[in-house]
Amino acid sequence: MKKILIKTAAFLVGIIICTGIISAKEINAVPKDDQLPVNRTVNLNGSEYTVKTIDYNYSNNTFISLRDMAAVLKDSPKAFSLAITADDIEITRGGAYEAAEGDLTGFSDEVLAGTYHGETIKRPSMKIDGNDVKYYCIVTSLAENGTDCYMNLVDFSMVFDLAFEKESDTGYSLDSGKSYIISMNDIEEAGYFNAFRGVVVGDATTGEIYYSFRGDNSTAIASTTKLMTYLIVRDSIESGAYSMSDKVEATREVRDVSVSADGTFEMPVGSSATVKEMLECMLLPSSNEATLALALHDAGSHEAFVEKMNAKAMALGLKGTHFVNCNGLPLYTKDKVPAKLQNVMTPEDMFILASHIVTTYPDYEEITGKKSAVISSYGEEVKNINPLLYNMPAVNGMKTGSTNLAGYCLVSSMPVSAGGMEHVIVAAEFGAESYEEQARSSELLLRYGKQQFLNRYGDSESSGETVDIPTNSGALIDRVLQFMKNK
Amino acid sequence: MLRIAVIIIVILAVCTLAVVLLGKFMWNNNKNIAGSWYREVDLTESVDKRMCAWLGTETVEGLAPVKVKVVLDIEETDTEALYNYSISLDEESYKEAYDTARAGMADEINRLVLTKTGQAGYNLSDEEEAQSVVEEALGMSLDDYIKDYLPALLSEYDDLNKDYARSGSFSLNDSQVTWNTDGEEMQETWVMQDNLLIFSGTTDRVYRRL
Prior knowledge:
- By secondary structure, chain A is of the alpha+beta class.
- Chain A has 16 helices and 24 strands.
- The longest helix of chain A has 27 residues, at 2-28.
- Chain B is of the alpha+beta class and 210 residues long.
- In chain B, 43% of the residues lie in helices and 29% in strands.
- In chain B, 19% of the residues are buried.
- Classes of the chains: A alpha+beta (487), B alpha+beta (210).
- Chain A binds chain B through residues 206-209, 456, 469-474, 476-477, 479-484, and chain B through 54-56, 109, 112-113, 116-117, 119-122, 133-134, 136-138, 145, 149-150.
């Protein structure tokens, strides 16, 4: 009897323990991504459609179904063809789309009521008009119509030049005849740039700044530092100190960086590559070892090169700038309690530096505009990590950067032309929270820069803006400049 | 003995009379308090902030002081030391303050246009030319543009007046004034010297005779 009681008690305890473990797992279960399916309405030119959207992690961080939007727009001037598999997405703007079963039916009640743990947001293999692009999307088989791709609503607006007007929490209206006009004042008032350390966009050819937010805030700049390194090297080449085809040797210091966590590929001691190849390594994959090699080749020592960088900054009038190294990595001092230093600039200083490079060495884009380069001296192919080279084919530079302190930074350039004028727009952002925001904010800035350029040198049709009384200082200046250009 | 007592009484009477007279004529002479008084309120900082918000700058240069007058009218009553009063924002001074604010904003806009057109390669000679270009581009005077299309640099007169306007009665007792406004009493100290009337309570207000 006693044995039976003991066995029964042990069995019951086991059941209780197992139930507790299972319950704990359920209570503590954290979805890989928090994705909330939401049915939204889109009113296109007076016709209403139900469109599937996913709010990613937070409400209003909305990703929209490409299948549903292809069906909505199929008979409009903004139609696009769409082919989606689990591995590839192909979009052709202006192409035809045949609506499939399940398009525009919304998520089922079962999906809306259930707990959805979706696929991780990622950059799928995606082509738009035959060009590879790098947008963060959610590719999922959530609904009944098979694989679908959900694109961030702001990215979608920019890609398809469509302005979504929010009518309610779950409703938008669209006018397919209207362009997506970017208003920096609206974006700033909504607080979009509050999380950034600073942004700026302007015409590098004239030096005019179109918009800046925290533009005089001195902030860590990470690898965008390498633009100053590039300038010093170009100045030295210009003065005849050496040439693009000269060999640059990897010292022990360079080799040590190349095999560290901050290295791109190994450069053994005594190995070498041309100055041009080193510049390609520096500017495309942001090689810290190639940068150091160039600095040592140029000035003999790292300290001497950094002195040249700071002297150049002073000569250019970059008042909020200070360099401690050539490549933008954090640097610890030799004090008892070492300080962690980083190169700093203000966004407006960076605009001046980038504009100087654009106007002094316009062939900079021969390197920065490449998506990849073969470094024959090392038998390596290096890739350009600037996402805008993919998302905006007109973009031809310039440099990315990221450290924990600096966040994700990007200095970008894009040639524009109108009215016989050919200028270059430069945008710089510092402190984006993610790669996604680095790309999106820069694209917004460059598109805004192009709008402003067209306002000044194009006609109102090409700029897409309607003319009315300016209600902010930026719009007033735009109006005056346009008036003077037309006078 | 009697003569000494009379002398002492006369001296005391004269002293008392002197004190009373001094109290009436040299310190708070209640009879002179009636009339119109004013004090200035400086709104420059608030205008500065509104200008900076629109211009997108942190400071503005050379904004002239923007001040309004708050007027206190005092009437005697039939009861000694009891007066009726009313306080309001002087409308004329409000208009002048608004003109000053708009002129300051126009100067800042002209400076901004001069700078930005210079950066774009246009060489305007001075702020006067900048203003002329702005007015041609807008198709209206700069003053009208500021009045009709910019956020208000000052609150509307009626809204601002609400901060100051009140009326009622007050009584004086030596250096103490007891205000009676809409049935509520409040006490402060007061003093009148030369042409200044000073009230001290939660805030100090210095009025000058109008």
